[in-house]
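Residues determine shape. We examine one folded chain.
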Amino acid sequence: MFVFTVSLLKRFDLFNGSNFFINLKKENYWFPFINNQGIRVSLNLSQTEKSSFFKLSNDLDYVTELFVIKRTGFKWKIDSITINEPELATIFNETSKQIDFKKYLVQLDSGYQLNEIIINEGEFTDIDKLLLKFSVEKLLKHFESEKTNKLLKKDS
């Protein structure tokens, strides 16, 4: 999912700003009890707010039919992600080849190892920042799940 997120940020040229708006457009309607094929959703990311509840923005540059969401019980969940757009597919393939997930954090049999991190001004790219954040969050999730497992064993 990390490569997908970075690819979307590249596709919409959003590395310069830290905040962005998510614009969604449904491509079909959902009729309860008739079919559960889901709703196809197109996505746009932009630095400025382009739409509101009362005004639709159909003039935006959307990645069409990127998600299919389905209703399961009382919740809507992403059922599938399909990259049909050639531009985004190219960006995704290039990005997946460029990112080294072991640059900052390596998983070992017994846990994790942090690699030496040197941050040189001007050389630390936006992708490096996101990858470092992703690696630290992965490590924190590991600690949290380890803590939960210890508590569960203690209660048993």
Notes: Helices lie at 2-11, 86-98, 126-155.
